[in-house]
Amino acid sequence: RRRPSRIDRRNQLLMTFMWLKSYPLMNQLSLIFDLSISQTSRIVHATWQLLAAHLCHTITWPSNEEWLGMRGRWRHIPEVVGCINGTSHEIYRPNNEIQQMYYSGHRRFHCIHTQVVIDNELRIRHVESGFLGHTNDAQSFALMSEISENGQLPIPLHCFLLGDCIYPSRHPLITPFTSAQINRRPFARRRSLRHFNRVVRKYRVYVEHVIRLLKLFKVVGTLYRHHRDTLSRVVCLRAALAARRTNLFI
Length: 250
Hints:
Elements: H1 9-22, H2 26-33, H3 37-55, H4 64-69, E1 80-90, E2 103-104, E3 109-119, E4 124-132, H5 137-143, E5 147-148, E6 153-154, E7 160-162, E8 173-174, H6 179-184, H7 187-214, H8 218-221, H9 231-248
Parallel strand pairs: 1-7, 5-6, 7-8
Antiparallel strand pairs: 1-3, 2-3, 3-4
């Protein structure tokens, strides 16, 4: 049996970032750092929770003045100040009767959903995770902190966020027209509506890039092997690390 050895703070952080980035098994990390498996697990979980406590609060929602100052940065849709989209994180099938609540018929696996809001400088402004897998993006949006002029996440009336067509088309969201909606309009207007959809897709792809950046860390981009109740906190930590990286290049 391997005897527990001491490890300094620098190696504790290194071990934790290796776990977040590559998501190896604990026995693999224990071999690399010459520790017992139980000690490796305790260090990793204590360290990432400490990082989350210090970093998650760094993702802040802009004030109304900051939102208004972002208008005009996207030339074709000057009143749009950001985007919103959802993503999924696969988990093991729960061993009880609530497993169907975590099953996504669209994804075909058990998962937890996350909603991500970015501004038009591609900075992460809000991350809310923990939505059950059976919900879609519209249902998750209805359950998350309210984004409105007087909600928990205030945004001025003249500022908007881009979302895909499953989101409700009401302030502060702008969504593309569906094919059915376009076909019901007069023939002369269909071309302009399709052009509007192309503009929305052009800018909404930025939030997809940010979500891809989040999932470069395999702890949130692959099957999560630990207890599902900790996943939301891990997602928040990963988002905070991504936000710090983005801010360095702005």
